[in-house]
Design a protein that fits this description.
The structure is a homodimer. Chain A contains 13 helices and 14 strands. Chain A folds into two domains: 5-40 and 276-382, Aspartate Aminotransferase, domain 1 (Alpha-Beta Complex), CATH 3.90.1150; 55-270, Type I PLP-dependent aspartate aminotransferase-like (Major domain) (Aspartate Aminotransferase, domain 2, 3-Layer(aba) Sandwich). In chain A, β4 and β5 (140-141) form a beta hairpin. By secondary structure, chain A is α/β, with parallel strands linked by helices. In chain A, α5 packs across α9 (241-254). At the A-B interface, α1, α2, α3, α5 and α6 of A face α1, α2, α3, α5 and α6 of B.
C-alpha cells in the first residue's frame, strides 16, 4: 500500500527520535519534555493502584467521553457551566488530534505561534491545514500580526500554549490574554488553549486562562502528564457541548475510549489530601533546577547566548547568533548532551531563529552543570565570537 | 466551528448509544459485545497491578510502538519474521483507525463483507473511503463477487473478521481462507485481518490465519479486550516493517503512545502459568451460554426465525422474515431486552437483510432464557406468521 497523501510529507518526530539516542548512560538529556520520574506521586496513587483488582467494573468497556465520576470531578474542578462539557482523552495529544479531525478540512487556515509545539504542527499537518505563523514576543503573540492574519485569512482556529510555552517558556501577560480573547470573538476564531504546564508556575501570579475571557469561542486542553504521570496517557478537552459531542464521534472511531482503570486512579490522586503538597514539591524542585540552569548558563556560556527568564514550565529557550543549529545539536549529542535545535519547532523553515530548547525538569542540578559545560565547548565551535 | 466534511455524515454509534439505555436494571442486554466481567483474570493480574507503584519507569513517557518487552513477547508469540513488526495500539480499534489514516485517501475503494463490524464502517467512512460490499455465505465471503470487485475496482484493502465474524458469527473455511489470500496476492490488495474473537473457539478445529497464506499482503489486528479485559484498551497490529513504520508516524500525532503500566500488566498476564486455564474456562462458559441461547431460541421463537450455528465468538445472527428491524429492536428494549438490529451493520441500507445480532457472553443462562421469552412476544408482533 502507498502512504496516504497527508502522511507523505510528515517526518517522524525529531524529538521522539532524539529521545532514543539520549537514552545512552553517557548522555545528559536536556532534550525531552520529560517530568522527573522520581517525583511521580506513586505513593499517593498506591492505594488505588493496589485496589484495582477488586474493581472489575473498571476493566469493562467504558463510556467514550470518560469515566463518569472523573468527568463529574472535572466539571466541578474547572467550574464548567451547563453549556460546556469535557471529554477524557488518551493524553492531551489525542485531544488535539480529535479537534483537528472534527473541525479541519484540508486547506483550511489555522494560526499558531512560531516557534510552536511540534506535536501540534504534526497534528495540523496531518489534517492538511494551512498553518499561518504568528511571531512571538516576550509577553505573547504579536497582536498586530495576529489581527492582520484574522482579517485577511478565514482562520478556523488559533492554537497556542499561553502558560510557559513549549518551546520558549513564554507566559502571556494578562493584557495579551484579554486582547487575544477579544480578537477571537471579533473574528469568530476558535481559541485552542493548550495548558499542560499551567500548574508548573514557580514564580509570579497565577493568570486566568485566555479561554475564561471567551468561553464560547474556545476549547481547553489539559494534560495530567506533568502533574500526575505521562505513562497513564490521560488528558482532557473542555468546551461547548456541541463541540465536545463532535469530538465524541471521532473518538468512537479512534479508540472507543481511554483506559478506565487509570482514569479511576487519576481521580483518586486528584482528590488525595496530599496532592496539593505534591504539586508544591514539584514546583519547588523544578524552580531549583531552573535557577541552577540559568546560573550555569551565565557562568559558562558565551555572553552572546541569550535566554529570557521563565516563571514556570519545563523549558528555556537559548537564543544564539545565526548558526547551523541542527549541526550544533548533533555535535552536542556526540559530546554527551542532548538538546533540541530550534528548527524542529517551525513549520516554515525560512523563519527559523537560531536557538536551542533546554529542558530543566529531568536532570539533577549536578547534571545540569555538566551538561552546560559540555554544551559550552560545542557552542564555541559553531558560533565563534 | 463547523464540523469537518467527513464527520458530517457520521452518526454516533447506535451500539454505544443502546449500551447506555441497556444499563437499566430491568433490561437484559444481548446488545453489546461485552465479555463477562466476572471472568476477568484480575486474580492473575493482581500481582503485577499491586507491583505498579514500585515501577516508576512504567509511568514515564514511553515508546510510540509500545512497551519494548511486550513487543518482544508479541514477536515471539506470533512468530513474526524479521521483515515484520508490531505496534501496540489503544485497543485494536485504534489499530484500524491508524491503518485507514496511513493508507486511505478520500475516494479510495476498499472492500468489506456485508454485514460488517460497525466500528470498521465508522473508521472507513471517516477516512472517506468508497466501501464496496461483498455478501457473506456460511463459510465466508462470496468469492465470485470478491474477485469481480477486485477486477473491476482498484481496491486498496479488504477488511474482514474471518474468525467468528461480528455480527454474524461466521467462521471462514480453510478453502475460503486460502482462496482469499490468493486473490489478494493476485490483485495486490492488502488483507486487513481483524481477529478479536480468534481465541474464543469452543468447537471444531483451529484454522490458520488468512494472513498466514499472504503474509506480505496483509496486516493482522489483535485485541486483548476479549481474552484479558477491554478497559485496559490494548490491541496490536502486525505487518511489514514499512507499513508498521507508517502507523508509528500517525500514532505519534494521535496519542504519542498507549498507556504503559497496563502494557506491563498485560505482558505479565500473557506469560502467567494459569493464563491457558483462564482461556479454557472462558471458552467453556461461553459455550454453555451459547448452547442455552440456541436451545431457548428453538423452544420459544417461531420456526421462521433462523440462526446459523457458530463454533465460537460472542454473537449469533438471528435471521427474520422481512420486517422493520429498527422498530422491532426499539420495541424489544421497551419489553426489557436489548438487541441490535441488522440495519446498523450495513453501510448500504438498501441491502439490509432482516436480522438481529444476539450476544451470548454477558448474560447468565437464566437471563438468556428470560431474554428470549421477552423477545418472543415482540417478534410475533413484528413478524406475524
Amino acid at each position: 500500500m502507498k502512504l496516504a497523501k497527508p502522511l507523505q510529507n510528515i517526518q517522524p518526530s525529531y524529538i521522539r527520535e532524539i529521545l532514543s539516542a539520549a537514552c545512552s548512560p553517557d548522555v545528559i538529556s536536556l532534550a525531552g519534555g520529560l517530568p522527573d520520574d522520581t517525583t511521580f506521586p506513586l505513593e499517593l496513587m498506591s492505594k488505588s493502584l493496589k485496589d484495582l483488582p477488586n474493581r472489575a467494573q473498571l476493566f469493562q468497556y467504558g463510556n467514550t467521553a470518560g469515566y463518569a465520576p472523573l468527568l463529574e470531578h472535572f466539571r466541578e474542578r474547572y467550574q464548567l457551566p451547563s453549556s460546556h462539557d469535557g471529554i477524557v482523552c488518551t493524553g492531551s495529544q489525542q485531544g488535539l488530534d480529535l479537534i483537528a479531525r472534527a473541525f479541519i478540512n484540508p486547506g483550511d487556515h489555522i494560526a499558531m505561534e512560531a516557534p510552536s509545539y511540534l506535536g501540534a504542527i504534526q497534528v495540523f499537518s496531518l489534517a492538511q491545514a494551512k498553518i499561518k505563523s504568528i511571531s512571538q514576543r516576550v509577553d505573547g503573540p504579536n497582536l498586530e500580526e495576529l489581527e492582520a492574519c484574522f482579517t485577511t485569512k478565514n482562520i478556523t482556529l488559533f492554537y497556542a500554549v499561553p502558560d510557559f510555552h513549549n518551546p520558549t517558556g513564554v507566559c502571556w501577560s494578562l493584557a495579551v490574554r484579554q486582547k487575544v480573547a477579544q480578537l477571537c470573538q471579533k473574528y469568530n476564531v476558535t481559541f485552542i488553549e493548550d495548558a499542560p504546564y499551567r500548574e508548573l508556575r514557580f514564580n509570579g501570579e497565577h493568570l486566568p486562562l485566555v479561554s475564561s475571557f471567551c468561553p464560547d469561542n474556545s476549547m481547553v486542553l489539559r494534560s495530567y502528564s506533568k502533574i500526575a504521570t505521562p505513562g497513564i496517557r490521560l488528558g482532557l478537552v473542555t468546551g461547548r457541548l456541541n463541540w465536545i459531542s463532535a469530538l465524541n464521534k471521532v473518538k468512537q472511531a479512534a479508540d472507543l475510549h481511554s483506559n478506565t482503570p487509570m482514569q479511576a486512579v487519576l481521580l483518586d490522586l486528584l482528590q488525595h489530601d496530599e496532592f496539593i503538597q505534591h504539586l508544591a514539591k514539584l514546583r519547588h524542585l523544578y524552580h531549583a533546577r531552573y535557577k541552577a540552569l540559568i546560573q550555569n548558563i551565565s557562568l559558562k556560556l558565551p555572553a552572546y547566548c541569550h535566554l529570557n527568564t521563565v516563571d514556570g514550565g519545563m523549558f528555556i529557550w537559548l537564543s544564539l547568533p545565526k548558526c547551523d543549529v541542527d549541526a550544533l545539536a548533533k555535535s552536542a549529542l556526540e559530546h554527551g548532551v542532548a538538546v533540541v535545535p530550534s528548527s524542529v519547532f517551525y513549520q516554515d523553515r525560512a523563519s527559523v531563529a537560531s536557538a536551542l530548547r533546554l529542558n530543566f525538569t529531568n536532570a539533577s542540578i549536578e547534571e545540569l552543570g555538566d551538561a552546560i559545560e559540555r554544551l559550552a565547548k560545542v557552542i564555541k565551535n559553531y558560533c565563534p565570537s
